[in-house]
Each structure stands twice: as structure tokens, then as C-alpha cells.
Amino acid sequence: xxxxxxxxxxxxxxxxxxxxxxxxxxxxxxxxxxxxxxxxxxxxxxxxxxxxxxxxxxxxxxxxxxxxxxxxxxxxxxxxxxxxxxxxxxxxxxxxxxxxxxxxxxxxx
Amino acid sequence: xxxxxxxxxxxxxxxxxxxxxxxxxxxxxxxxxxxxxxxxxxxxxxxxxxxxxxxxxxxxxxxxxxxxxxxxxxxxxxxxxxxxxxxxxxxxxxxxxxxxxxxxxxxxxxxxxx
Lengths: 109, 114
Known about the structure:
Chain A has strands spanning 4-7, 10-14, 19-25, 31-37, 43-49, 52-56, 59-64, 69-74, 83-90, 98-99, 103-108. Chain A is mostly beta strands. In chain A, strands 2, 4, 5, 9, 10 and 11 form a six-stranded mixed beta sheet that branches. Chain A has a five-stranded antiparallel beta sheet with strand order 1-3-8-7-6, with no helix packed on it. In chain A, strand 6 and strand 7 (59-64) form a beta hairpin. In chain A, 35% of the residues are buried. Chain B is an all-beta fold.
């Protein structure tokens, strides 16, 4: 069974800080998702990665398949980035996603 | 529609009541998944459909939980005789094929059993 671990569990940052959230998994995967969940809101998919690095605006996601590790970075953080960030691993084919428990980010102005 | 639509958005049920949660996936999405997210936890898999076929229901916590997708589009998750431990956000997601392409989540249904 694939286990997905995220760290930190909670993170408070000052506006403008560079933020890193880490995700590690125990079993080889075909892809990894980074998701954002606002309080009371649904889940929005930020990235799906199978290798290398992806960038969208101030968000950057990287994955190292050999080390079974992925990171989500937020540059120039802003209070509107406050949310729960969840990584989810896709093993293969039609298997369901395995989710981490999420990282609760609070960005203070 | 443009996204995955779930209804109701919020549901309060008395213990013992039956509830039905609806998911309307993106048109043409073959795969549909239901997940349960308890407070402070990540989502956990419940069940998976490919078209109308329920291929995996290993995550359903008890026989009080039942899901169907009779015409391969809209899906309903039914919980019979609700218990307090059923209180959670129920998320639906759909994708084009497997989970690799166009994976999209709905906004979820927050179920509170009182």
C-alpha cells in the first residue's frame, strides 16, 4: 500500500515569504497531484507531475522519482494563498489516488 | 457542464436517516471516483466507476454505503441509517480515462449527522 506523507502539517508565514511544502511516498507512482482546498470549498487541482518541474504563476512543483519526493513552492506568498495543500499519488492505471493529510498554510499580512 | 457538480452542498441529517448525495461529472469523463474526507484529514477512497460499471468499492466503510452510476454519467452515493461517524465531506472526481487526464474534483458535500 502506498503511504503518502506531507510536511509540515501546519505552516504560518509572513506575506512575501518563500514557502515549501514537502511530500514523500513509499511506492513507485506514475504521477503525483498537488491540490488546493480552501475552507468550506472544494478541491482545485494545481499540478499533475510525473517528472521534473512545473510552474504556474507563483507556484512551482517539483518531483524526484528516484527519491520518491515532491515539493510545492510558493514564491512571494500572499494571504490569499492561505489554504490546505494536499498531495495525492497515482500508482497506475485506474487505481484511486492516495492522499496525504494536507498542509494547512496561513499567510499573514 | 464546465466542472464536476455536487449536490447538495451541505446536508444535515438526523442519526438513522437515509441520505443521497449526487455527483454530475464533466461530460464525457469515463471515470468517476468518490472520496470521504473527515475533518482535518486527507480524502480517503470510497469507490470508483468506469462508465456504469463499479470497478472498485473496497473503500466503502460499511454495507450502509451504496453507490450507483446507472447510465454512466450522474452518480449517487447513498448512505442508509446514518451514524455520527459518517459526518464528513464527500468528494466526487471525474477523469477522462483512469486518473491521468483531466482529473477534476467537485466542491464536495458536507454531511453532518446530528
